[in-house]
Amino acid sequence: MRSPSFLLQRRPPLLLLLLSPWPVWAQAPTAAAPSGTPGARDCPEACACASGGQANCSGRELPAVPAGLSRSVRTLLLDHNRVRALPPGAFVGAGALLHLDLRGNGLHWVHPRAFWGLSALEQLDLSANQLEALAPGTFAPLRALRNLSMAGNRLARLEPAALGALPLLHELSLQDNELSALAPGVLAGLPALNALRLRGNPWACSCALRPLCMWLRRHPQPAPETETLLCVSPVSLTLRPLTAFPDAAFRHCAQSLAPRDLAVVYALGPLSFLASLAACLALGSVLTACRRRRAAAARRPPRRPPDPGPCSASPEDPGSPAAAAQA
Ligand SMILES: *[C@@H]1O[C@H](CO)[C@@H](O)[C@H](O)[C@H]1NC(C)=O
Ligand SMILES: *[C@@H]1O[C@H](CO)[C@@H](O)[C@H](O)[C@H]1NC(C)=O
């Protein structure tokens, strides 16, 4: 009985959309740009637009992302131009973009907010550029991304925060860069990943490579090239394949803490601080109370010694008559 109620929930908006007297903007591509008409409505001036929302701006020596992008553009081919840098909001207006091709631009700088607004984008090709690093959060707006290529750049490091969490990412191409390791967090944010291309990087077979080796062993099929991934350093392990390292090979490496362990550590810190604070306070108040009582006792006049009457002799007194009687 689950699906009928689900369908009922979804039907009203669809009906509203169909019955709406206004033209729906999603229909714009077919209405707008006739095939291959540069400068047509909804088509950037420098490009040729085809039905189906493809804007072909390939190989036109463009120095920047062309102006005039609209929601009717679904595919933007910007490959083989001269776009060296992407400023913030470089693609505003193209919120319905699904496929963005930026290959071969000599791109060396991407502003962390360059991809803002591209929440529908599924495929992003940044290969054959000059990228050396990516700022944290660069890909954060791309929640629908399924295929990302950064092959053929100059990446020596890839911070987990640069990729962030990409829940749908299936395919990640990092071949032909300068990576020597992948930080553990990089793969942790990519739960749907099943193809990871890594060949052509100078892998250093050290503890830092552990998460990658574990991932490769758990995902053998989608990376047929895995067998060809070789260590470039240290010298003793040169040209050993990455997959040749069983978990045991990393036993000497310090265990990195799992998120749950980290949470325990973070919770225990403040808790133990509070507990020791409470213990100190309790101990302090007991000590002060003791000292006060002792001081009060010292101030009181000394008690009169008991009357040494004949009946008051203690039984312990060896010379007393009672002790003598006991003996
Ligand atoms: C894009 O346009 C160029 C010529 O400007 C052409 O060579 C290329 O095949 C076009 N690409 C696509 C996918 O239509
Ligand atoms: C993912 O992108 C790469 C590079 O753009 C391409 O070669 C590959 O075919 C794409 N994969 C899919 C499944 O579309």
From TrEMBL:
SUPFAM superfamilies with a match to the protein in the record: L domain-like
Limits of the LRRCT domain: 201-254
Membrane topology: Single-pass membrane protein
Localisation per UniProt entry: Cell membrane
Parts of the chain that traverse the membrane: 263-290
Signal peptide range: 1-26
KW Manganese (keyword) present: no
Listed InterPro entries: Cys-rich_flank_reg_C (IPR000483), KCNMA1_auxiliary (IPR051432), Leu-rich_rpt (IPR001611), Leu-rich_rpt_typical-subtyp (IPR003591), LRR_dom_sf (IPR032675)
Domain of life (superkingdom): Eukaryota
Keywords on record: Cell membrane, Disulfide bond, Ion channel, Ion transport, Leucine-rich repeat, Membrane, Repeat, Signal, Transmembrane, Transmembrane helix, Transport
Region annotation (Disordered) ranges: 295-327
Pfam families cross-referenced by the UniProt entry: LRR_8
Keyword Signal: yes
Subunit relationships: Interacts with KCNMA1.
Protein name stated in the entry: Leucine-rich repeat-containing protein 26
Protein source organism: Ceratotherium simum simum (Southern white rhinoceros)
Encoding gene (name): LOC101389959
